[in-house]
Amino acid sequence: MPEAHVQVAKSFLELSMNFTSMLLLWVLKLREMERSERTSKEDNGPIDSSRKHKLMAVANIMAFLESLLNWVSLTDFWSNYVWLGAFVLIVALIRFLNVLSYPEKPWVTYMQKTTLSKNQISIGDMLNRCPILNEIYSPPLLWGRSGHLQTASYGLFGHASLIRTYDCRHVVKLSDGASVVFDVFEPVKPHSLRKDLTLALCPGIANTSESNYIRTCVHYAQENGYRCAVLNHLGALKHVPLTSNRIFSYGGTEEMEEMMARLHELYPSTRFFCVGFSMGANITTRMIAKLSSDCVQHRIIAGLSVAQGYCATSSLSLYHNWENGRRAYNYLITENMKRLLRRNYDMAVAPHVRTGLIDEQHLWAATSIMALDDSYTRRILGYESVEEFYRDISSLSVIPKIKIPMIFVNALDDPLIPPCLWHPVRELAATNGHFGFVLTKHGGHLGFLEGSSIAPNSVTWLDRFIVELANSVAVAYYENE
């Protein structure tokens, strides 16, 4: 046998031994779970339906893994290169699906000992009032532990066929002619506290109130007594034309501030809980940091950031490498932004091409968000370089200025936001009494789908957490009032 073939065979043999060991450990772990369930049954009497289904699922998975283990251990397994290829594909699929990762409770970080000022809400008490943080977050079986599939599916699952629309659409003109459009959804049931409470939602990049993950969140919040106001990013609504020569920007807070100002006028007795998603979380964080303390203290009682990257400057190099597929995501986000610009070409692109500010050829040739920002965004906003633009729009440097309760949520398997981006915020939460940090093991980027079977529940883990946290904040706020 040629030396190269010998090396390949050795590599595959080593891979098979490692894989077989993993299977064996997983079988032993499942057997232990099965014994634990049966012991619990003996101690606590008849088993309930959910535990019965869990026990059956454990038994079925264990049987499958044992049969796979037997198949791998066949003596003639390595005699055929077809089987080698099949085995490699199986290993790659298992690695991609991350099926050997087991669900865990979220990891919660906050300052354990802090001296509270008058009317300050305790982050610890607030988070301890959320039962969901003491529960294991269980993503859907088979595919739900893959951060990539969670990320890809967050806009596909949920209440895709909801017919409930906004109760009122508001349009506010800015000084540069831009029309801020936001939608208000009234609660369908009274809140348990009998208070007027509003969730102010800022969606992710190029998203609106029509985005499916926003609709599921709004639907669940309405059912729990919350009014929801959703900012529609400039240029993102397909049937609403731009009225100025720009679209939204990643860190621009003007539209969010204008929405909040109008909501203050429309609902003078309400209290606001601001929630931002991904890019919208950056905007929400920056807006809260900018607002005056009196305004924040009396009307905006807390904020929540979900799947934020915090520092655009640090992400410059990260999004150009292929680790965890980030370069591919970078390309897809760029293409989505280019589609949005093409749809709004007459207002957002053509005027700047005519003045020579934008090189159209460079714009459409961009294959990364950094290239697009260099050829378009930073020029429209008057920055000399992308680096200067990113430094100015990042929220990390302004987070310490926030003086109200603010919770930050990230997922460990988020393919877009690696740990190096959220670590500084987690460390800040451990030393600052205004902040809390929640890290989930699974969830991807804005996914957080959960369920006890392959099909996910229509209500996500994130939807439930937002409502539980908002309830906890409201209770703490009115106790201190």
Automatic annotation (TrEMBL):
The keyword Membrane applies. GO terms for cellular component: sperm flagellum; sperm plasma membrane. GO terms for biological process: acylglycerol catabolic process; medium-chain fatty acid biosynthetic process; medium-chain fatty acid catabolic process; sperm capacitation; steroid hormone receptor signaling pathway. The keyword Repeat does not apply. InterPro entries: AB_hydrolase_1, AB_hydrolase_4_sf, AB_hydrolase_fold. Residues 201-451 form the AB hydrolase-1 domain. One of its GO terms (molecular function) is acetylesterase activity. It comes from the Eukaryota. Signal peptide: none annotated. The chain crosses the membrane at residues 55-74, 80-97. Keywords: Membrane, Transmembrane, Transmembrane helix. PANTHER family: ABHYDROLASE DOMAIN-CONTAINING PROTEIN, MONOACYLGLYCEROL LIPASE ABHD2. Belongs to the AB hydrolase superfamily. AB hydrolase 4 family. This is AB hydrolase-1 domain-containing protein.
